[in-house]
Amino acid sequence: MADSYLECLTREFEISGAGSGAGPDTVYIGGGTPTVLTENRLQRLMEIVLSAISGKTPAEWSVEVSPDTLSRKKLDILMSAGVNRVSMGAQSFDEQALIAMGRRHNRKQIFDGIETMRKNGMENIGVDLIASIPGVTDKSWRENLNICASLKIPHISVYSLTIEEGTVLRDRIDNGSLAVKNERDQLDDLSAAESILTLVGYRRYEISNYSLPGYECGHNMACWRGDDYAGFGPGASGREGLARWTNVPDLKKYIDAIFSGAEKGRASRKFFPPGMIFERECFSASE
């Protein structure tokens, strides 16, 4: 499936005309899963993206990583390609919280990942935290924030808890083994994040994002300002002016759509002319 995905991503870039323009100012590879790929496949992904942007390294190239799948070798692959910003999906430094959410990584792997990045020259690091995880005390939540601050992590994202269907967390809430915090307590957790982080020099530059001066995520800022952007891969969204589009999120459907040729061209002045959207049955968009 991974090889089919990479082949389809290549085809989607080709359909869009990627590589024929000046290239984007920022590139963001997200979802938290890129480092799940084997080293060879991760290398191929980097080559595919480099080809799509004509080998021109953008001012900011971010990649999301998971603590349990980041290695020195994979970091080398990313940095050699031109990646200069890494966002780690830590979620929590609380072991019990990670277990409750069904995460595959542990607290030690988060610290090890941060150390690996810094020892090998990656300074522009982001860490994602989730507020109001069931079972996490106020004290533990504040410890999470203070750990990030003490490590001087340049960028910290604090997201409200979203309970997705089909997850371990959803099952545990449904069977009564965990209870969701009420709205007032959830707001208090977000308020605590702002108080603790801004007190030690972080700036809240976006609803969920804090950074030390000069470490704001350029990709986030561009989206926040309303700049156009092109999305590639399953579930990826794009916009150009008033037009919006989102690729089908299901990986198999995405692969089937690409291989069956269920796409049509559209003009894209900002990034990769002409861009691509799926036919209506394969994509959703705001009209």
Number of helices: 10
Taking the sheet with the most strands, its summary is: 7 strands, mixed
Question: Overall pLDDT, averaged?
Answer: 87
The separation of the N and C termini measures 32 Å
Portion of residues in beta strands equals 15-25%
CATH top level of the largest domain is: Alpha Beta
Structural class, from secondary structure content? alpha/beta
- Seen as an oligomer or otherwise, the chain set is single chain
Poorly predicted regions: 263-287
Strand order of the largest sheet: 1-2-3-4-5-7-6
Order of helices and strands: HEHEHEHHEHEHHEEHEEHEEE
Q: What is the gyration radius calculated from CA atoms?
A: 20 Å
Shape: globular
Overview of the molecule:
With 287 residues, this protein is α/β, with parallel strands linked by helices. The chain has 2 domains: 1-16 and 229-287, no CATH class; 25-225, Transcription Regulator spoIIAA (2-Layer Sandwich), CATH 3.30.750.200. It has 10 helices and 12 strands. It has helices spanning 2-16, 39-52, 72-81, 95-100, 107-119, 138-150, 168-174, 183-199, 218-225, 251-259; strands at residues 26-29, 60-65, 85-91, 125-131, 155-160, 203-204, 209-211, 237-240, 243-247, 263-266, 275-278, 283-284. The chain has a 7-stranded mixed beta sheet with strand order 1-2-3-4-5-7-6, covered by helices on one side. Strands 8-9-12 form a 3-stranded antiparallel beta sheet, with no helix packed on it. A two-stranded antiparallel sheet has the order 10-11. Helix 1 (2-16) crosses helix 10 (251-259), helix 2 packs parallel to helix 3 (72-81) and helix 6 (138-150) runs parallel beside helix 8 (183-199). The radius of gyration is 20 Å and the shape is globular. The two termini are 32 Å apart. The model is unreliable at 263-287 (pLDDT under 50).
